[in-house]
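RECORD CONTENTS
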Amino acid sequence: MMMVKKDSSVKIRDLWRQKGVAAVGVLLLLFVFVFTHPVRAEDIKQGVTKGTNIQVRKDKPVTGEVIATLNTGISVKITKSSEGTDGSVWYYIEARKPSVAGYVRSDFIDLNGTASEDIKEDRVLTINFDDVKVRSKASSLGEVLCELAYGKNCTFKRAEFDEIGGYYWYYVTFDAENGVTSGFVRQDYFSTDDYRDELIDRGFPESYITRLLVIHDLYPEWEFESYNPVSALTWEKAAEAQYGFSKVEGAAESKDDTSSNSVSDVETTMLNSLIKDASYDDLQYGFASGLGIDSLSGLFSDEKQGRSYITWKKATLAQIKYYMDPRNFMLTENGSLNTSFFMFVDGTDSTGTTEKGVSVILSTTSMTGTLPDESSTTYASLVKKLSDDSKVNPYLVAARLRQEHGSSSGDDLINGKYPGYEGYYNFFNIQANGTNPVLNGLKYAKSQGWDTRRKSISGGLKFLSDNYFYRSVPQNTLYKHRFNYSGTAISHQYMESLYAPHYEAKNVYKGYGTDISPASKYRFLIPVYADMPSEPEGRP
């Protein structure tokens, strides 16, 4: 049989045919991927334009054709970012008003700003120029109704976009000017105090804002969030709900008086810790004022020994309001940061915490140095590790331990020597209540198998984490541990003492210590009740 040699051109043609089929397959796969995998929602960011005559470029950054210009306050979606030939980051944005899509340089987009169309009704805005014209409609073609002077306050009602001029105009009301009380003012004639606006949008009233702005100037990276602890009650009713369930410490004339008022050893230990940690000013103006006494001599029966004779008494409504009001614990009288502000720090955020900071908080307690039953482990390292594992701020944990057991010698709940319960420990005083709190607390410790210090601290921290910091309605600040509601009633409060979060917060602050700087980043959750008075509640 004669073999016929296949022509080389046929081979080449067949090869191209095969490769062509493969290429078509690849294109089909790309087509399917692109059209069945749109930009994910989590990849889209929201932003707001800042500036005037911001150029929007078609197809590519830097050199792309300018297809539109935007002014400040426009809400945009950011679907991708690219580095331009100018070394800047550019965003591909999509705007609805006006309808346009293209590339904008990233420094003209505020990722945390408030769009004009999202400004809340009744926000107070301030005129930032002289002789600003108020017009009859949202356009520079509108009739001039009057002029407003620099510093004039206006109340925002709504925003309207002028498609021709490219600006938002705000319909505002104001105190009468030549008989005119309302009209349209172009958005860029108002003050651009963006951080004040952010605080307003976050739900803070003016009496909070003035104080938070001072803190923001000191620590510009700190974040403030508001929440309403009890939407079903006004401020007045929320305070009244605490009446009868809140205690303050009273100065007794003798030790006998304390026993006659049923003060437990656990409570006395905590109070001695509070007094020991407090500065003179704290005692004179904070603790002492709550007691209704004038000086340290009224608080201590033996000042040289530092012994305090204490009795608990029901708090008055005025005392409750003072310690409930967050505004009283933002700034000191001289305008510096009040260290009690850390009662609002997010207890699930461990940013900036260290083992050294934990050690500072636990200093002068029995929890310094190493564990007696673990010579290679310090209390500070154990608290830091267990807190990190539980995703709880270790400074709040250390402050709670110090609050519960401030004595440098340790008490019966943590020394392991209580008759009948030798070798059991309850570092967080869980279930330490009733007429014999030490016994009840150690019974609970035994039921949980807390026969080492590690087990007690670990188990107690898990209790705090599950039942407070990460419960279904989180109590993730020291303030929430003390003031908490469900419906119209108080609920699940960790302690009765009004002073506890105030002093625990001061110890939390000690942990942060020198790490607190303008560059530090912490998150604070601050309560805002309905119908609060315009000024903070005064000292009782």
About this structure: The longest strand covers residues 167-177. The CA atoms of residues 301 and 511 lie 31 Å apart. Residues 8-36 form the longest helix (29 residues). The mean pLDDT is 82.
